[in-house]
Amino acid sequence: MMMTGACSDSGAGPAARRLQVRLQRIDYAAEAINILDLAATDAGGLPPFEAGAHIDLHLPPDMVRQYSLCGDPADGSRYRIAVLRQDDGRGGSRSVHALRCGDMLEISAPRNGFPLDMRAGHHLLVAGGIGITPMIPMLHVLERQGADYSLYYCARGAGKMAFRDEIDRLARRGTAHLFFDGAAFRVVLADLLQPGAQPAGTHLYHCGPAALMAAVAQRTAVWPPGTVHAEFFAAPAGDRPAEGAAADGFEVVLARSGTRIAVPPGVSIADALRQAGIATATSCEQGICGECVVGYSAGEPDHRDFILSDGERRTQVALCCARSHSPSLTIDL
Prior knowledge:
Elements: E1 3-4, E2 18-30, E3 33-40, E4 54-59, E5 63-68, E6 79-84, H1 92-97, E7 104-108, E8 122-128, H2 135-145, E9 149-154, H3 164-170, E10 176-179, H4 182-193, E11 202-207, H5 210-219, E12 228-231, E13 250-254, E14 260-263, H6 269-275, E15 293-298, E16 301-302, E17 307-308, E18 316-318, E19 323-324, E20 328-331
Parallel strand pairs: 1-17, 8-9, 8-11, 9-10, 11-12, 13-20
Antiparallel strand pairs: 2-3, 2-7, 3-6, 4-5, 4-7, 13-14, 15-18, 15-20, 16-19
């Protein structure tokens, strides 16, 4: 997830409220990819969401997985997620593919760490594989707004390309570029991202496998701050700050009560809070979802997340992964 805007429903403290939903429909999207429609179980309906948002899906026995919402934000009747079955994964996708229509599930309210910036003069969307999911709501919004955009999407063959029909139906002529050849895609991407290749005011949104994310990050390192937005499947390997003094123990101060809690080496702030009896909501535990982001008012965090922008890091911190350069860190709890 992300190095982008603030989440719309993040925070620690009491555990985040869960929503009850019913699995209303399952559709085949592409090879090993199913689309699930989730409907409200009561007349209250589902909270609205913005393009780029994701939800936590709670799976038995005790798994939580994050999935981007891939429906039209204007459709308040359902949430849609698309899940790629990964037989060599951690088990979440296999559990999702074993679900059946009518099953009752628990989810979080939507959070958005990958929002569209409608101030952009041009929106460049780059997706690889299942990374297309957060782009589909963006297409709906950009088309309705009549915004200037282009989509570049690569999959490993036509049978693996999810949402192709929807993209063809939605996108204006010349705005969507689909690739089944990874080598050709990389060449085009290199041209797209070279300095001066995009109109002034362009914002880039990218999501996909680790190799794609690393290549895009490398080529956009000189782009203006705040114009590159990324949604990660997992924390990028090797991108954490080097261990050192910041890995030492420190303490957090709870601003509302003045309580001081020690955070030993090797223990996250979130875990230290829980050990002290303070309920703390987390989800990904990798700094990519935003569930545990809170404000801070004193101290110097060692930010190790992949969701907060440079501006947000001046006032916010992710409790699941941050350390502290200062002996104490005062957080807004």
